[in-house]
Give the backbone structure.
Amino acid sequence: MMKIAIIGAGALGSVIGFHLANAAEVVLIDQWAEHVAAINARGLRCTRDNEIFTRNIPAVSDPTSIDSIEVALIAVKAAQTAWAAEVAAHLLPADGVAYTLQNGLGNDEVLRLRLGAHRVGQAVTTLGATLIGPGHARMAGLGPTTFGAAPSLHIAYTLADHFRIAGLPASVSTDLNSLVWGKLIVNVGINALTALLRVPNGALANIPAASKLVQRAVEEAVAVARAAGITLALADPVAETLAVAQTTAANYSSMLQDILRGAPTEIDTINGAIVREGQRVGVPTPFNEILCDLVKALEATAPLRARE
Ligand code: KPL
């Protein structure tokens, strides 16, 4: 059986690990000690369609005791990517590959710097997941996962096969960049606004004043993508972003979840990436700049928040 380490067992990592344990030998690695202790004591719980399932999967915070890992799936938040790169460097053999499933732009570069380009792959997932509490995740939507063909077509197909055997839809693409940007644009439109407005995703699709803000964020990002020569996998990016908000209507976006638990957000790799790319290709991005500043101010003012 293939031995896979999931580095970052938050909402996404836990849901993937839970399913993948059907098809592979899985070990979960996470810095949150209470979560790791709960998984080892009571098993990893996963709520799916209002039913709770439990599976015994080993979890550790300190990866030094683990060996013979063939592939690492990176599912940490952007702020922990450098840590994840160190862990992967320790765990993987010379020909082992780390695939990042993270949101936004730039995480793959952090991994490449530590592991080398020949050992880093990227995947785009539209799986929806929420962490309910220590040791317990909820599958919020069974969207497909696409693995990039680089750096190893063989490993990409092997991972996609393992996902499918585990009940998670998956495929391989030679044109991952357009999917990476497609997902980025959806996150640009949904994540910061749901965090700032403190609403589930559906509010952005159903309340015209909020949909208008999604449109502004997305249109700027699309202009940057076009100037950067990216072929987008989305035919109508604003409509498709609003459609994702509708199909995930009850979901709290990952950025809203970060804000609610007082954790750093991924604003720099999402809206911040649009601002940086915009500067590089000469496209102004004032609306995304303001979203970045507002989310950073939201993070920094958390201890002072007025309560009812
Ligand atoms: O990817 C997401 C996220 O929350 O990060 C979406 C698609 C917006 C679903 O919540």
Summary: The first strand starts at residue 3 and ends at 7. The beta strands are 3-7, 25-29, 44-48, 51-55, 59-60, 71-74, 97-100, 120-133, 136-148, 170-173.
